[in-house]
Design a protein that fits this description.
Helix content is 72%, strand content 0%. By secondary structure, it is an all-alpha fold. The protein has one domain.
Length: 246
């Protein structure tokens, strides 16, 4: 676990281009006339702040967003209210994210984290090497129009190579593309369940059962249909295949 915390810090902390050693942190109150000591204290506060936000930042740079949104659409389409519970969907999304992102994290570990811990490369070199696999993963999932949106907003010219796009442009473009893809998949998931709801509603109306809610009748049919076609297997398979892994 400590190894992955170091990986998080390497990716998310602002690199200074110095230091080949991992600094120790101590907090104390006292007076000092040296501006450098005050500056170091501010850097520690900034580091702790970023570490607090790191889970949210990391979630937005991985496959987690798409997976969780699609699973949320699936639960709504089934109409099962709180089943599966939100905690189960989040847990499943996390473990599927670990599975999908493992090749990227292994590459970061081999090319950046391990050499850095072995004092073979500097912090700035480790940061650049760690950023490359993550950038490649995000760019493969990102639509060109979303990249152009933020490039134009930043008043930057379109680079000849996608790898030359700055990190702060790639991240929001990736998130927008993930939302777009997740909603597309969610729409496709909704279609068979809506058709079943319409069929049940039509049958009930033709039988004169106007006061009987169609949802009460269609819900068991949707659940048994989902089980018979092995729905969870199909959804997980299509989610994994939806990511372009290179």
């Amino acid at each position: 676990m400590s190894r992955w915390l170091l990986l998080l810090a390497l990716l998310l902390l602002p690199h200074t281009g110095v230091a080949a050693e991992i600094p120790t942190i101590s907090l104390s109150l006292g007076e000092s006339g040296d501006p450098d000591e005050w500056f170091n204290g501010l850097k520690i506060i900034a580091m702790l702040t970023i570490l607090t936000l790191s889970p949210s930042i990391l979630i937005m740079m991985t496959s987690f967003t798409r997976i969780l949104i699609v699973l949320g659409f699936l639960r709504q389409a089934l109409g099962t209210q709180q089943s599966p519970p939100a905690q189960v969907l989040v847990g499943l999304s996390l473990f599927m994210t670990f599975f999908i992102m493992m090749p990227v994290w292994n590459q970061i570990d081999q090319t950046a984290l391990t050499p850095y811990l072995n004092h073979e490369i500097s912090q700035s070199q480790a940061f650049d090497k760690a950023k490359k696999p993550l950038m490649e993963f995000m760019l493969r999932q990102t639509r060109e129009e979303d990249l152009l949106l933020f490039l134009h907003a930043a008043k930057m010219k379109k680079p000849a190579n996608a790898k030359d796009i700055p990190f702060h442009i790639v991240i929001p473009s990736f998130v927008i593309s993930e939302l777009h893809t997740a909603f597309e998949i969610g729409f496709l998931i909704y279609i068979p369940f809506i058709v079943l709801d319409m069929v049940v509603a039509s049958v009930l109306m033709s039988m004169g059962m106007m006061m009987l809610p169609p949802v009460m009748i269609s819900l068991p049919f949707k659940i048994i249909l989902f089980v018979l076609v092995d729905g969870w297997h199909l959804v997980a398979e299509q989610l994994i295949n939806s990511f372009k892994m290179g």
